[in-house]
Amino acid sequence: MIEALECGADTLLMLFGLCRLGYYGELQEQILRDLGYQFDFINLAEYTTGKMRDYLKAVRRMNPKLHMAKATMAGMEMLKMVEYIDEVENLYYKNCGFELKKGAYKKALNQFWTDMEKAASKADIEAGHQRVKSAFHDIPLKKEEPIRVGLIGEYFTVQDDFSNLDLEQKLCDMGVEVHRWMNISHRNLHYSGEKNLNVRIRDLCRYEMGPTSTANIWCARDYAERGFDGIIHVKSAGCTPEIDIMPVLQNIGTDYKIPILYLTYDSQTSDTGLMTRLEAFYDMLSMRKKVIR
Question: Can you give the pTM of this predicted structure?
């Protein structure tokens, strides 16, 4: 935020969260004002009452001249783009580690990003989606009994490649088939709900434990039941809900005899340290797979 203000920003926007993230905005604003910065601060946590009129107030504050009909139409197109992005990313991380021509998947993915950035209509979004799927389909692969790893963890850290030091790409470069259920489409657009997921894991946890906890416990068991070779649990340091589910994950690992690697990220996490742990985890999974086979 300081960098943004010093680059000339006059308005800051803080998102909300279902955990203590909802308290951060107020704290951040006070720190910045104590430092002498002048700005308009929009804290979405103040508008998350569950009432539509309050969400509309937040939208109006961000853009008082917003035309709701046009915004609704653009919003629907944006959500479709998000679905396509999640779908394409899933395909990419499942297969890019097995391409015969190195860099082919990355080239197709980069073209897809360009198409999405330039898209000005629903037709453009659809065309970009079809183009990348066709490009992926035409890339020859060599995939024979690959090591499959499922990623679970805190909503933002597990998705954002900058925050997790490009974890998924590192695994793919080792020749791993990477699966990640946690994304915007699954968690926000097509979520079956905490109650529904709790029914499936009620023998593992009796109470709701936080924003993504139920989904991650369910997802870990799902990976284990589907015969995955390993699970990686990703979280930012101090994320209480994800810390709370670690004993449950340990039980899943024991019950299903599936190895689980726990990764915690903070400002001191180094790329070299991460690679050392990933390489050791990969070697263990590879040796284990040969023994089981």
Answer: 0.90
